[in-house]
Amino acid sequence: MTTQAPAQAGFDRRYDVQGLEAIDVAILGTFPHVREDDPVAYPGEPMEILISTDEFSPVCPWSGLPDFGRLEIRYLPREKCVELKSLKYYLTSYRFVGIFHEHATRRVLADLVRLLDPLSMEIRCDYGVRGGINTVCTVRYVAPDRSGV
After folding, report:
1. Whose C-alpha in 16, 35, 44, 99 is 20 to 30 A from the C-alpha of 129?
2. Right CATH number for 23-36+45-144 from 3.40.980.10, 3.40.640.10, 3.30.1130.10, 3.30.300.30?
């Protein structure tokens, strides 16, 4: 059996990728949603927090080439908020992880729900166009005690 060389050098190239164990969940930190030393009661509905970045870049599991996405995290905190520096380190840990767009979006939701126990959360990632196709993934979570709200 003979193997045929690729039509052009480099078309068979693949960069090594890391597995899911490289996602650094332990780096994530939190702080209280309400300051204990603030005597003012906050009126109205729970605060909605929106965090966004254009720098989310996991890699393609097949080629190892980077995928770039605009990631949005929208949530209603229960008791804790995610600390932004730790979130940046967490998201950066995806940089060499070979993962499909859909799986990356769901994984971010799962990790943050476990960390924060929010009232609700939505993760949306608009990945850059690849091969003329744009992928936008959106996943949502509503806490069981809020599902009737």
Report:
1. 16
2. 3.30.1130.10
Residue type, 90: Y
d(CA 139, CA 125): 9
Cα 73 to Cα 66, 68, 77, 82, 107, distances in angstroms:
21, 16, 12, 10, 12
Specify binding-site residues.
82-84, 101-102
> What is the reported pTM?
0.86
Q: Which residues are annotated as a binding site for substrate?
A: 82-84, 101-102
Distances (CA, A) of 135 to 45, 63, 107, 113, 138: 33, 18, 16, 23, 10
Residues serving a catalytic function are 60, 67
